[in-house]
Amino acid sequence: MSNMIEVTDINFEQAVVQSDRPVLVDFWAPWCGPCKTVAPMLEAIADEFGDELTIAKVNVDDSPDVTAKMRIRGIPTLALFQDGGVIAQKTGAGSLSELRTFVKGNL
């Protein structure tokens, strides 16, 4: 798992918003079935794009402030941050191919 980090309400600003490289944030929960489907795909994306971006995982149950601030309504939600703001966002599991296209199309 290269370039994958756990992020919480406490370190979100520093780890994601202030990052000098793009960060793909996965908003997830341990009880979410589709989130479990996305997890190995994110590991593959981390391996493939590890030189270009960081992947951050935010457990919505443990980080209610960030979840509310980002207006996360469904999970999994993936938000791609660059230069301090969200440049792309998608909700739902999808396939590895769709995830790869989402990342490539927004980097």
TrEMBL record:
Pfam families named in the record: Thioredoxin
Family label: Belongs to the thioredoxin family.
InterPro entries listed in its UniProt record: Thioredoxin, Thioredoxin-like_sf, Thioredoxin_CS, Thioredoxin_domain
Any GO CC annotation of this UniProt entry: cytosol
Disulfides per UniProt: 32-35
Location of the active site: 32, 35
UniProt xrefs under NCBIfam families: thioredoxin
Marked site positions, Deprotonates C-terminal active site Cys: 26
Keywords: Disulfide bond, Electron transport, Oxidoreductase, Redox-active center, Transport
Superkingdom of this protein's organism: Bacteria
Residue numbers marked as site, Contributes to redox potential value: 33-34
Protein name: Thioredoxin
Location of the Thioredoxin domain: 1-107
GO terms under biological process: cell redox homeostasis
Organism (species): Marinobacter adhaerens (strain DSM 23420 / HP15)
GO MF annotations in UniProt: protein-disulfide reductase activity
CDD domains xrefs: TRX_family
Gene name per UniProt: trxA
